[in-house]
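User: Predict the full complex structure for these chains.
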Amino acid sequence: MNPETPLLSIKDLFIRFETENGDIDAVKGISFDVQAGETLAIVGESGSGKSVTALSLTRLIPEPPARYVSGEILLNGKDVLKMSPRELRAIRGSQIAYIFQEPSTSLNPVFTIRNQIAETIRLHRPDVKNVNEEIIKWLDLVGIVEPEKRMWDYPHQLSGGMQQRAMIAMALSCQPVLLVADEPTTALDVTIQAQIMTQLRELKSRLKMSIILITHNFGIVGDIADRIAVMFRGKIVEYGETKSILANPQHPYTKALIECIPQLGAGKKRLTTIDHASLPS
Amino acid sequence: MNVFLLIIQDVAVIAVVAAIIWSILRFCRSERWQRALRRFYGDWLGVAMLVVISIYFVVGISDLVRLPVKDPSGRFVSLLDVCFRDVAVEKNFSAPLAHTTYSLNGAEPLKGRHLFGTDQLGKDVLKQTMKGCSTAMLIGTLTSLIYIPIGIILGIVAGYYKGWVDDVIQYVYSVIASIPGILLLIALLMVLGKGVLQISFVLGITGWIGLCRLLRGETLKQSERVYCEAARALGQSNINIIFRHILPNVMHLVLISFILGFSGIVLTESVLSYLGVGMPIGTPSWGVMIDSARMELSRDPMVWWNIGAATGALFFLVISLNLLGDSLRRAFDPKAA
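Assistant: Here is the predicted structure of the two-chain assembly.
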């Protein structure tokens, strides 16, 4: 691939929800690039439009009510917003794969892990002969112990962390070039959260894929992200290298978000909250 | 009826039974059904009702499977007829276990003994009741085969696609539901005529509304769950999501409404036969037996065993289906321990 063209390039994306109670602009003209092999973290609070941005990459938001008012989403130079449903289905999974927030509901309760991963492998990689071997390989890669036994389990027989690992294995099994992790650790406790993040970092360097990590937690992005985009009320208010943003945040909202991270031994009685009235709209 | 039709009927009956057993076994492998099954085995009432219903089904099927042997009237005999070949045909009514025919003057000795007595033509009532099973089972199964696929497809499609698709399907079932049920059935049967196929068709095309509504609501709920979105994010097509992801998650509702709906269908068939628009006179059907009992109850002395046997058979089938349906609902209830 030409090193100058980014893997994914979003230009002036504007998404509006047209509801009976009036229009809501969820994303107001954002632009960013993701290079091959790079990790971008989109950070922002609830309702800042970060999940909508993530879902729009393969047009997963139901239309209507959503409408793409303007902008381009270029994946390897092709505009996703101009693709036919068939082309969209082809890039979902095989090019861009997702991991969702709640692992317990993102797996189908009536099928085994093996069954669900096999389904995606058959869909996107029909040339794979030995599906079971392939499944064991991926489950092993995401750190599931005894994958040849665990793959016959139903989702409810696994713990939250294991479910999320199975979900990651499912997303990776179609060998995507871009993995979108939409708050992958929010529903998990802190220990498991750290394990999953370490796992993602390892997988990223081993598989040489790009990751878009969506989170509201500045505490987890420092170790994994190459670049950070801070979203606030549907706009990107700050965008740049991780180190420079963490060291020298420019926008008051970014500063406020960084101050929210609880510090061990800081001796504070109360956690800081964001005072919305003081922020520029 | 020639031998060719006979083979087709036998093969069809066996194929339908095999398909029902296969699909139940297929879904039993899923985790939710396994759990429900374990809970169901602990419910002795439900298991007992399942046994009762199985007996009804075996009796019904034994009368549907016919052998290539003709009886004196030129019809092929069924397995049930073979079992009852030694039962004598009398000249007139006879009371249960009586020695003579049932009349005030000139009672004649009987050729045999009859547990439930005999009817006006001297036929054994127990045998007629058992033959009635086959009609009930046939209509119940055929109607279910028509209304369940319609209900599943329209219900899930309405709940999954929402928007104008949902509106159209809702309008259609609201229109059908707004016409008084029994009047619609009678009107359609007047047009189509009497017979098993006609009744099944009419009950089938009017009976899917409840199931459709139920599945629409459940699909609305399921399609909001993240696994549907995850499936879409992995590039699954809509058809695949409907049949591979949503259908297995609502299949227990289909099973429960099949069981509960079955008794409703059998009862409606009896009501229609009683009103004279259902099964043709002469067919072994509980509704026809109850219909013919109108005369028998006003006769002096009264003949009660014919209607008694038919209503008894109907009663036990309906109550065991309802109790089984309740047991299954309890077994599938996620809130139960």
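Residues 190-207 of chain A form the longest helix (18 residues).
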